[in-house]
Amino acid sequence: HMPTAELQALDAAHHMHPFTANTALGSKGARIMTQGKGVWLTDSEGNKIIDGMAGLWCVNIGYGRTELGDVAKRQMDELAYYNTFFQTSHVPAIALAAKIAELAPEGMNHVFFAGSGSEANDTNIRLVRRYWDAKGQPEKRIIIARTNGYHGSTIGGGSLGGMSGIHAHGGKIAGVVHIGEPNYWAQGGDMTPEAFGLARAQELEAMILNLGVENVAAFIGEPVQGAGGVIVPPSSYWPEIQRIVDKYGILLIADEVITGFGRTGNWFGSQSFGIKPHIMTIAKGLSSGYQPIGGSIVCDEVAAVIGSDEFNHGYTYSGHPVAAAVALENLRIMQEENIVAHVRDVAHPYLAKKWAGLMEHPMVGDAQLVGLMGSIALTPNKAARAKFSSDVGTVGYRCRERCFANNLIMRHVGDRMIISPPLVITLEEIDVLIERAWVSIDECY
Ligand code: PLP
Fold first, then answer.
1. Which of 317, 336, 355 corresponds to the end of one domain?
2. pLDDT interval class at 393 (50, 70, 90)
3. Percent of the chain scored above 90 by pLDDT?
4. 157 and 99, same structural domain?
5. Atom 13 (ligand 1): residue with closest C-alpha?
């Protein structure tokens, strides 16, 4: 390929990157990845980088699994495209829907495909509103979501998300309101984690009563907030949310785009936290990112209610045959190689101990981990759970830059540092990740 500097110049001149200050790219230049194998990436300069983020939380089976390319080629040669509109179907979409129903919690047997997590959450907005229309309660329109949640960046998904930066670009659709997130480290004050978790969950009840239950359609949440900083909720949180959802009879959407397909040590994060959703959003790990595909897994009751009339919704690429065939192969590999059990084996106690060990660093005040997703909080004062003052800049950003320089990819959300590595990571690779993380934290302040 061309020399890195030339690629960077072309990139900056013509390629608009998501979630990037594009004019700043010119001076700095993007890091250009050229190859991947397992948990390792190679860049255009030949550096070997350990990917602590599995791309964007998605390359669950790791890079370089050529079986997926073989399946894609076969499917393209056989039937590159057909749609699933108007009573047509094809083998990959049928087989994948059946496989997902087999893996999903009991009673969740129906899959509506999309091209991404954002599209799937847009589908969910329609699904829940359609459900209440069909039940003769069309005034039930409002979806309650959470601050700092992330549900994608289409206008629908971005509205469900609770990130003001995203709302600032184009506003929010009507009928979405937000309650607080269960971020104990940042917001728990003097409360115990359990009391804080209960209080945060009870904001849902207060919001339902305030809006009038007759107006509320659904609650949506990620089992563990991912892009918001890997916020693992106190154990009191989800049971209380479940109690409230059950009491008022509103629909529960678990956004499993990150937590689905093994990330938390079960097939779905809902299973790790005892959540019983009506709808689950899936994407990312469904195909390990080898093809763009997402969807909504819908429970029997919701599917029966909305199924009585035409559902005026769908995407050209809903259930795309190549994406579906690749996702199916990804799930076959995950099952055959017991990758979900591997997550449990390496996460606890091995990674959990090492991750908590980062708190021995004077700047690390909090360490959260569930399965293979974790976060640490960088702080100038652990006892006070203090934040760095803004005049030192974003310490998290600097830490991310140091990680990058040390050939480790970690993400930062403010001063929280995040990992979500490929699920196939080995104990030796965990050691490398932790060593590089420690050095990078040390260098960032
Ligand atoms: N929901 C969650 C929980 C996510 O983390 C993401 C992406 O990070 C999305 C939805 C959006 O998925 P996509 O980027 O595939 O549209």
1. 336
2. confident
3. 93
4. yes
5. 117
Would the CB of 150 count as within 6 Å of ligand 1? yes
Alpha helices, H only, 58-173: 66-79, 91-103, 117-134, 155-160, 164-168
The backbone torsions φ and ψ at residue 131, rounded to the nearest 5 degrees and listed phi first, read: -60, -50
Residue 391 has pLDDT above 90, yes or no: no
Domain check: are 115 and 260 in the same one? yes
Check pocket membership of 122 for ligand 1, CB cut-off 6 A.
Answer: no
CATH of residue 56: 3.90.1150.10
Is residue 283 in contact with ligand 1, taking CB distance under 6 Å? yes
| End-to-end CA gap in the chain | 36
- From the number of C-beta atoms within 10 Å of its C-beta (0-12, 13-18, 19+), residue 380 rates as middle
Instruction: Determine which helix (DSSP H) or strand (DSSP E) holds 297, and give its type and residue range.
Output: strand 294-299
Percent of the chain with pLDDT over 70: 100
| pLDDT tens string 277-329 | 999 999 999 999 999 999 999 999 999 999 888 999 999 999 999 999 999 99
What backbone torsions phi and psi does residue 16 show, to the nearest 5 degrees? -85, 120
Pocket test for ligand 1, best of 143, 275, 284, 317 (most atoms within 8 A of CB): 284
Q: What is the ipTM of this complex?
A: 0.99
